[in-house]
Amino acid sequence: MGEKDKDYESMVADHHWITGSEALLRSLLAEGTECVFGYPGGNVLYIYDAMVKYPEFKHILTRHEQGAIHAADGYARSTGKVGVCVATSGPGATNLVTGISTAYMDSVPLVIITGNVATTVMGTDAFQEADIISMTMPITKHSYLVRDANELPRIVHEAFHIASTGRKGPVLLDIPKDISNQKVHYRQTHELRLRGYHAVPDQNPTEVDKLIQAIAKSEKPVIIAGGGVVYSDASEELREFVHKTNIPVASTLLGLGGFPSAHDLWLGMAGHHGTYAANMAIQNADLILSVGSRFDDRVTMKTDGFAPHAKLIAHIDIDPAELGKNIQTDIAIVGDIKNVLEYANKRALPAQSEDWLRTLQEYKSRYPLRYTDSETELKPQFVIEMLNETTNGQAIITTDVGQHQMWVAQFYRFNHARSLITSGGSGTMGFGFPSAIGAQIGNPDRLVISINGDGGMQMCAQELAICAIHQIPVKIVVINNQVLGMVRQQQEIIYDGRYSQIDLAGSPDFVKLAEAYGVKGLRARTKTEASHVWKEALETKGPVLVEFVVSKYENVYPMVLSGTTLDQLIMGEYE
Question: Which residues of the chain have pLDDT under 70?
Answer without folding.
Answer: 1-15, 574-575
